[in-house]
């Protein structure tokens, strides 16, 4: 896999060339495997957050969400703190009857689409039939979301002590707000699965660093190295703040939110275009892993082994994920 694709497959472990005749293929990401089971009882099965000025870690253009559905298609999300806040906590001012009518209209449109697609299926060749089945799967995913929305009609969104964020926030301030919103989302049990892809370009700008992200990822010595270290310190301080907030929130049974949450933080690149030995931090007690240790695993250990370990430790029924070869026993 080339270095420019690291973030695309970070949570999936897919082989982009695994489908004959296609130059791109992806599979479901680990967060969505978890959301399929952990999201049954929450308003939102998962929440995807993206940096408003999202740029690949190596600077090669806008980044997609970290989350990929069962078809291997990217899942859109909220790009700013204000979008995320309204998605989770803003009151729906329309009446339950109006909400039901709108969902019924959406169902009617889907029914018409499915009927037309079924008629089209007759006489298609194998490749076209495969594409149509992929389309059907997409429609079924929409139907699941509509059913989920129907379950929560009339149920008010939870209240939060967070103030509504302002617009135009970026860099360190944006990350701080996103972390606050993530903590509030978990605290109110609005969702149990979140992904957040930070913007490299935005945080560099907030640190008054003028080096382009791509140039920094190819550092050797000098200004690029200094810029990388300053960014790493800033991101580490922000992450420490998130962990402290999770530890400060008390659950009804007296435990901390931190004790019941799994936090994963990492990068799709180590240096230049190197995809091996990428730094990955695991925290929280939600998956029962051993904390407070630094593990250097054997060369060639798939990152998906870590995802499989966390999924199993969280009670998710799964035997493998992506290119995993087994759980990491040193963590369990």
In words, what does this structure look like?
The chain has helices spanning 30-38, 81-89, 96-121, 126-151, 171-187, 200-206, 213-217, 223-248, 304-313, and strands at 47-50, 194-197, 263-266, 280-283. It is 41% helix and 5% strand. It contains nine helices and four strands, in the order H-E-H-H-H-H-E-H-H-H-E-E-H. The chain folds into two domains: 3-91 and 156-331, no CATH class; 92-155. The chain is globular, with a radius of gyration of 21 Å. With 332 residues, the chain is mainly alpha-helical. Strands 1-2 form a two-stranded parallel ribbon. A two-stranded antiparallel sheet has the order 3-4.
| Record field, number of beta strands | 4
Percent in strands: under 5%
Rg (CA only): 21 Å
Q: What is the helix/strand order?
A: HEHHHHEHHHEEH
On the 0 to 100 scale, the average pLDDT is: 86
> How many helices does DSSP assign?
9
Major β-sheet annotation = 2 strands, parallel
Count of individual domains: 2
Give the overall shape, derived from the CA principal axes: globular
Q: Output the strand order for the largest sheet.
A: 1-2
- Contiguous runs where pLDDT drops below 50 for at least 5 residues: 54-62
**Class by SSE composition:** mainly alpha
Question: How far do the termini sit from each other?
Answer: 29 Å
Helix content: 40-55%
